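Why do we care about 3D structure at all? Because function follows from shape, and shape follows, mostly, from sequence. That is the central idea of this module. The next example makes it concrete: a single protein chain, its amino acid sequence, and then its structure expressed as tokens.
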Amino acid sequence: MATQVTSSISERALLLLEIIASAEGPPTLNELMAAAGLPKATTHRFLTLLERLGFAQRSLDGKRYEVGHRLTSLAIQAMRHSLQSAPRRAILTALVNEIGETCNITMLDGMSLVYLDRVESDWPLQFRLKVGSHVPLHCTASGKLFLSLSPPSLRQSLYEAKALVRHTPRTITSPEALDAALEKIRKTGIGTDNEEFIEGMTAAAVPVRDSKGNICATVAVHGPVNRLPFSRALALVPALKKAASAIEKTFLSPAAQAPSKKPRNA
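And the structure:
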């Protein structure tokens, strides 16, 4: 009996996590109650446990629930070691062979970016950032892309944390100026870094979207400005988009990837 109760508790906790992670926006307690079919006291008890363990967290207004840092970290590790990593690696390698510059895949991890995968070009001059490295959002191509396409709460959290640290003379450190830059990125769908994170380095990034059309990762290219001037980084965007489209398919389940079968004529 004890085993059955534990299993039931685990299933309900996992169900709430799944609802939070798959929701279009952070759900309220009442919305979670309705979606899970659980009483208010039970739902609140599970959410308190998930918060304490770091798998869920409250939104800025304290009324909604979001994915916590521990679940995000677990998801990133799972993606890194998943069976689908080989196809993603092959796509990224083909992209680097095509354009001749270092490319990477990044994902959001709290208020920073983490490098999920990376393939180096053959050039001797490189800016080397290892897989698993974290970089800021406000001054990187992929980070600004995430900020522009994610809910406003992410940007607000960044501002409230006073996290707009200057890394180079070109780093944007004003919320107003960053808002204007992000609006432009939102319209173009292209993240850019023109020596904002590292002096002498430019970058461009495009989104990888999930099955609902939301950004879940990025594909980016970067290199030294003497070899990859900003204009050339932008010119490589079509190749980045092609790779991103292929990588999107690796994030889908086998059932979602399979073509639908048309009924045979009688």
